[in-house]
Specification:
Radius of gyration: 29 Å
Order of helices and strands: EHHHHHEEHHHH
Strand content: 5-15%
Shape: elongated
Distance between the termini: 31 Å
Mean pLDDT: 80
Strand order of the largest sheet: 1-2-3
Helix content: 40-55%
Number of domains: 3
Length: about 260
């Protein structure tokens, strides 16, 4: 009979935090005031605005009508290359109109659902290089720094190396704390125990050595003289028995708790 596969919850962490949201917001506020950016966007609108207003803008997934195959072909052969060129020029992940505004995250706020944010928060290749995006998705990445996914006891974190080191460490710490708490709850629901703390590896060595000596025919007294020759005689026998008890516990199944 094929063994039942453990049922683990796949959890996706939306782990944006105010420092990064504010950085994206400020970058966009400065960029949208740039005269050359505004001129570039106006030129783009002069060329394709009428078609986009009629057919729907590419980023309005929930509003625009479904594009026909000919619409898709026209967009990706005529419009998309211009968008990509401008995105690369300005170092943004998408082309937003200068008049577009986004909510500024205030001190003490925490945005968990990550609504649409400024395109200054990610690079053009993570939105327009479809081969790269497909490769990232295949590895389990979303292509957006500041996200993490947990698969059972494993966590995949996406770091954005543009961020300051302080923010990267803050992100990692917060995700790992939350992921471990979530995994602990999941194990508890399955009737399993989450291991707490860690024994010294030297203790494990002693457990194993004493177990092997006992199973080779040595008495507790003989083992005590071999393993703890300098210890006080009154306490060393109990110490050997404690190590044997621990060894038996780990051998019987608690080895799973070692981490």
């Amino acid at each position: 009979m094929k063994p039942t596969r453990p049922k683990y919850v796949l959890e996706f962490f939306y782990t944006s935090f105010p420092e990064r949201d504010k950085a994206e917001w400020y970058k966009w506020e400065f960029l949208r005031r740039n005269k050359q950016y505004r001129a570039d966007y106006k030129k783009f609108e002069d060329s394709f605005g009428a078609w986009l207003r009629r057919k729907g803008y590419w980023y309005e997934y929930n509003k625009r009508p479904k594009w026909s195959p000919s619409d898709e072909k026209y967009f990706y052969t005529a419009i998309a290359p211009v968008i990509v060129r401008l995105c690369v020029k300005w170092g943004v992940g998408d082309l937003h109109p200068p008049q577009r505004k986004f909510k500024k995250i205030r001190q003490g706020e925490f945005r968990e659902d990550r609504p649409s944010g400024p395109a200054t928060g990610f690079r053009p290749e993570l939105n327009w290089d479809f081969r790269l995006i497909k490769e990232l998705w295949g590895m389990g990445f979303t292509g957006t720094g500041g996200n993490a996914r947990r698969y059972g006891h494993l966590v995949l974190l996406e770091f954005d190396l543009i961020w300051p080191k302080r923010d990267l460490l803050h992100f990692a710490k917060r995700v790992l704390v939350r992921a471990q708490e979530n995994y602990r709850d999941e194990l508890r629901e399955q009737g399993m125990r989450f291991p707490m703390g860690r024994h010294r590896f030297e203790d494990y060595d002693t457990h194993l050595r004493i177990w092997d000596l006992e199973h080779s025919g040595k008495t507790v007294k003989e083992i005590s003289r071999m393993v703890f020759p300098s210890d006080h005689a009154d306490s060393v026998l109990q110490k050997v028995r404690d190590h044997l008890k621990s060894a038996k516990r780990f051998i019987s199944g608690s080895y799973k708790e070692i981490r």
